Amino acid sequence: MSLFAQQEQVATDSLHVIDTQCPFCSVQCKMQVIEDRSASDGKSVYSVVPKPNQASEGRLCIKGMNAYQHVLTGERLLHPMVKRNGRFERMTWDDAYELIVSKFNNLREAYGNHTVGLYGGGSLTNESAYVLGKFARVALQTKYIDYNGRFCMSAAASAGVKVFGIDRGLTNQLSDIELAECIILAGTNIAECQPTLMPYFTRAKEKGAILIAIDPRETGTTRISDIHLRVKPGMDATLANGMLKVLLEEGCLDEEFVANRTTGFMELKAHLDSLDMEEIAHLTGVPSQLIRKAALSYGKAQTGMVFTARGVEQQTDGHMAVRNFLNLVLLTGKIGKPGCGYGAVTGQGNGQGGREHGQKADQLPGYRLIENPEDRAYVANVWGIDPSELPGKGVSAYEMMEKVHEQEIRALFVMGSNPLVSNPNANFVEEGLKKLDFLVVADFLNSETAQLADLILPVTAYLENGGTLTNLEGRVLLRKSGRPAPGEAKHDWQVLCELAEKLGRGEFFPFGQVEDVFNELRLASRGGTADYYGITYERLRKEEGVYWPCPEESHPGAKRLFESTFPLPAGRALLTTVENHLPKEQTSEDFPLYLTTGRVLVHYLTGVQTRKSPSLAARDVESFMEIHPRTAKKHHIEDATLVKLTSKRGEIYVRSRYSDAIREDTVFVPMHWGDTQNVNKLTNDALDPTCKMPGFKVCAVQVSPLVTEYV
Ligand SMILES: Nc1nc2c(c(=O)[nH]1)N[C@H]1C(S)=C(S)[C@@H](COP(=O)(O)OP(=O)(O)OC[C@H]3O[C@@H](n4cnc5c(=O)[nH]c(N)nc54)[C@H](O)[C@@H]3O)O[C@H]1N2
Ligand SMILES: Nc1nc2c(c(=O)[nH]1)N[C@H]1C(S)=C(S)[C@@H](COP(=O)(O)OP(=O)(O)OC[C@H]3O[C@@H](n4cnc5c(=O)[nH]c(N)nc54)[C@H](O)[C@@H]3O)O[C@H]1N2
Ligand code: SF4
Ligand SMILES: [Mo]
């Protein structure tokens, strides 16, 4: 039976059918999880059926097919657990809340409100993210809140706001992809990271599109490309300068578009004129002829799309690097038309919505700014407080870890993240977390960070927790709750509301059900950039999803942005002059290789969930280091042996994997493992000056065989 012929299942006495969507990446593929209780031994058997929907078109990848496993493994956190004498003991919710209130209040009395920090995540539903942001500002009145999306979308988001006036992952619907005659995939590995989107690209190819991939390694994505630019890690901004120079010299500009819809052209032209192509080729490691070929393919095509993801963005110049790719889009006028646009390929399930409703240090719901007096007044009014009660802006996620280290933050509440494994410079982060007076972690699995906590709060997982999530297209989707909370687990937003009550601020959190939260979010975002006002649960139940901005219930939602104008002064987008720029950490005699980091198909982020899924874990049981065989020989590394990787900040132990598909000056290690395989023990904590994105994608390392002495 083909995938598409499969029928949706209907519940019977022995079949329990859950209509849901995948908890992992930003595509948010829809599926049914079916529990069959008919077996004579009483054990349930689970199966998964993909459901047709506009984004995944009825496909599921291997992670989605197995996503039910970590929820049902028997390893769930079921009760609040307090650490006493180094061991976790069960505690009631009432006692847990009392403990939090007394710890937080004692610290706030001694050190002020900002001594408590909150740290959220892009897996939280819009409703939980919204309540978390409000909880920080209204219940605790602390400025210190940020979230893991800082490590994910901040470079693209800040570039989008600056250049276009708005940040929405894709400016187009996915269906526009196959209308593009040329597609640039810069630092994005769709094949492993959003696998169900691959057919959009292969269909474009079948129609004759030219695909250009920019990646230091060969991946499932680069393999479908026609031109692969194997850039030196961290040199994308410079590579884009080379491509822009070719476009300019060969007259591949849309002059009318540049004249009528952009500003900054003359400065950009003068800058590009001053650059030397051979120097760019040398700096990027990409031959100038290949840069030229790629630029002309994009420049001469009638339609085209540019996609960037973390390869370009997780750099200490990530903000500017993205802006240089946006220059390509604007100079050729390839935006706001069918088959023309840009996509920052959003990462987490709710990586898009999670960054819109107030989890970020400087933002209030609807992308309003916490430092803008009008925005403060508007949101304070919705919340029923005086604007002067709202704290100002805090700091970015890693900077919060610095504040933890300095003990300016003495209590931390983590909801939906595993910062010990996902922050750069993990040894420093661990040292800081251990100094905290009080660490609370709300999770449904025992993450590395939860193991360090003083108190763990058990929350519901995707099968139980209903709410909205916004996928990579900016389409808001409703995920239904499909099974009761196990044990004593509660929904994230529910925990925050109950805690607000215990803190004496319950009147501001009067939400009986998740839809009540959404209705307040609609109001709080009304008139903001990410306007959800016109989106209702009723609409979401009837329509498959609604795109924001959607200012009125009668509004259809914005499918393609910037068709006639940009939300910036005079309606014009901004061209940017971007200098050639080297990564902050360079290789040296002691650390002779570049390390870049990223993902593999079967694991998700810090691996807390996928490592607990037997079917996924079995495919990649441990971390590895991809290395070119010639480089390996130079460093006396055999294939499939344990090696030690060292940077200025720490060391880890992983198994070597020979691959002639990676640059000889670079090794690659995925990010999905903790402890001695936590690659972030090596990564550099230098941050992009604008968006505070760490340079996860480049640092300098040494590799050596791990010699074991047998006695
Ligand atoms: N299987 C899987 N899928 C996921 C996730 C996961 O953990 N596992 N996570 C989700 C999330 S949160 C995110 S953010 C996305 C991430 O999605 P991607 O950004 O596509 O994933 P990465 O593997 O981090 O990086 C993409 C590519 O960048 C390349 N790269 C490394 N350094 C450079 C460089 O300097 N320049 C360029 N041009 N390329 C470089 C890497 O070799 C890699 O192939 O995936 C989402 N989907
Ligand atoms: N070296 C390196 N480091 C990186 C990256 C990289 O490419 N290289 N990528 C960065 C990126 S793009 C990202 S997005 C971050 C991600 O970093 P993290 O946020 O640390 O990643 P996760 O593994 O998703 O951690 C989420 C935790 O929250 C739990 N969780 C999941 N859903 C929910 C929920 O609904 N509620 C609650 N309360 N808990 C939940 C999970 O069980 C897990 O323990 O890592 C960043 N770190
Ligand atoms: S991981 Fe992403 S592509 Fe795979 S099933 Fe889940 S949402 Fe779809
Ligand atoms: Mo991410």
Automatic annotation (TrEMBL):
GO MF annotations in UniProt: oxidoreductase activity
Keyword match Membrane: no
Protein EC: 1.7.-.-
SUPFAM superfamilies cross-referenced by the UniProt entry: ADC-like, Formate dehydrogenase/DMSO reductase, domains 1-3
PANTHER family: NADH-QUINONE OXIDOREDUCTASE SUBUNIT G, RESPIRATORY NITRATE REDUCTASE
Reported cofactor(s): Mo-bis(molybdopterin guanine dinucleotide)
Record's protein name: Assimilatory nitrate reductase catalytic subunit
NCBIfam families in alphabetical order: AssmNtatRedNasC
Keywords from the named record: 4Fe-4S, Iron, Iron-sulfur, Metal-binding, Oxidoreductase
InterPro entries: Asp_de-COase-like_dom_sf (IPR009010), MoPterin_dinucl-bd_dom (IPR006657), Mopterin_OxRdtase (IPR006656), Mopterin_OxRdtase_4Fe-4S_dom (IPR006963), Mopterin_OxRdtase_prok_CS (IPR006655), Prok_molybdopt-oxidoreductase (IPR050123)
